[in-house]
Design brief:
single chain; about 525 residues; mainly beta; eight-stranded antiparallel β-sheet; 39 strands; globular; disordered N terminus
Length: about 525
Amino acid sequence: MDMSWTHHELSRRHALVAATGLAAGALLPTARASARAATFTNPVIWQDFADIDVIRVGDTYYASASTMHYSPGAPVLRSYDLVNWEIAGHSVPTLDFGAKYDLNGARGYVRGIWASSLAYRPSNRTFYWLGQIDFARTYVYTATAAEGPWNRLTTISTPYYDAGLLVDTDDTLYVAYGNTTINVAQLSPDGRTQVRTQQVFTTPSSVGTLEGSRFYKINGQYYIFVTRPANGQYILKSTSGPFGPYTMRQVLLDLPGPIPGGGVPHQGGLVQTQSGAWYYLAFVDAYPGGRVPALAPVTWTSDGWPVLQLVNGAWGTSYPSPAVPTPPRQVTPMTGVDTFDGTTLKPRWEWNHNPDNTKWALGNGLTLRTATVTNDLYWARNTLTHRIQGPTSTATAVLDHSAMRDGDRAGLALLRDSSAWIGLKRDGGTTRLVMVNGLTMDGNWNTTGTGTEVASAPVQGTRVWLRANADIRPGSARPGTFSYSTDGTTFTRLGPAFSMGNDWRFFMGYRFALFNYATQALGGAVRVTRFDLSTP
C-alpha cells in the first residue's frame, strides 16, 4: 500500500462538525434487552478508547482500541454486560517497531497502534490481535487469556491498513483492510503468512473515503463494516463468499450523537449477545478528552441488513440494558486510588513511548528515576500516563521529592500536543513548586515550545500533593487547573487556568501524566506513593 502520510492524515478524520442531518433508520422495537427495566447511559466509557473492535467469548465481552505512541499498546477491555468495562491488559506489550518508539533519536507521536483487530479462535482457544505499523508491515500477537501474556506470532509483509480479522466457521482466517479500496486477504492455517489477497470493493466517489474494516460472517453471509471518517458508517455484504462481490448500504450518516458538543458515532464493531440481540459499540469524537465509546442496539431487515435503533432520530443517550446473564463479578473501576502495590503496573497505565525499564520500580510506591537529560517533556522517557475520566475529573498524586537532584523536573501534567504541568524544579540546592504552560508541538509533532514558568511557590518538607483538574466536555477548548497541598487536606491553586484544545489531529485525547526528567545529569528520583483519580 503506497498511501502517503499526508494522504493518511487528510483521510483519517475529517474535522469535527456539528452532528446534524440524516437519521440512520426508523424507530423499531428494541431487541430482547427491552425486557429489562434497567437502562444504561452513553457514553458507556467516558475515557479515550477509539477504533473499537468488540467480540464475545462465552459470557464475556472484549474490546480493543487504538493507542498510537503509548506503551504498552492496544488495550484489551473486558465486560460482562457491554456497559461496564475494565482494562484486562494490552495486546502489544512493547512497541518494538523501531528506535523512535523509544524516544531514541526520533519520536513516534501519532504513529504506532492505529485501528487494529481483536479476534478469538475457538479451535485453539486463542485470542489474536492484528495491526499494521507505519504502513510497513502487519504484526500478529496471540494470547490464551485476555490479560496475557501476549506474544508476537508473526510479521506479515503486507500492511493491512485498518484491518478486521475474521475467524470463519471453517476456522479459516481472513482479513479485510484498506482505505477506499477494500481488500480481503486469506491467511495460512497457522495465521503466520498470507495465502492470497484480492481487491473486493471500490468506494463510490459519492461516498468518498471508507476505512476501518470489521469483518463478520452472519447467517452464512459475509459483511465488512466500514466507516466514513468521521461522520458515517456503511456495510458491505456478500452472499458469494469472503472475496465477494459486495454490495453497499449506508448504516448512518451525520447522525446526532449522545454527547452534547461531540461528534457522530462511528468506527466501531458489531457484537451479538448470548440471547441473540445485536449491538453496535462505536466511538464519539469528544475532544479535548479523546474518542469515547457509545453503545446502541441493532436489528436486521428480513433481507439481512443492519438497522441502528434510534431515539428521536438520534443515537440515544440511554437505552434498555442488554439482557445478559448476571455478571460473575463487578469489573475493576477505571478510576479510584492506586498505591502502586504489587509487582506490575495496573493496566490503566500506559507510558508515553516505551519506557527505560531500568529507570523505574515498584515497591513502597512508584519510583521514577530520571531517564533523559533534556529540557523538553516531549523528549523525556518514562512519562507515565493515565486517561482522563469525563466529563470532569481530578487527579491527585503524592510525591516524595527528597531524592531529586539539581536540574531535575518532576510533576503532574495535562499531556497532549499542547501541555501544562504542576510540579517541582530543583536548582542550586533549592526545590520550588511551579506551574508551567506553553509546551507545544506543531502539526508534524515537532516541539515548538518547551514551556514557560507562570507561577511558583516555595515548598517545605519532602512530600507534596499535586492536583490537576480537567474539564473534557467536548465542543470547545476547556480549562485545566492545578493546585498543591503540603498536608493532603488544604489545596492551594497555582497558576492560571490552562486551555485544553479540542483539535482532533493529535487523535489521542488529553491525559494525566507523571514525569521526572533531568536537565543537567541523571541520578535523581522521585517516588509517587499514591495516585487518585476522582469525579465530582
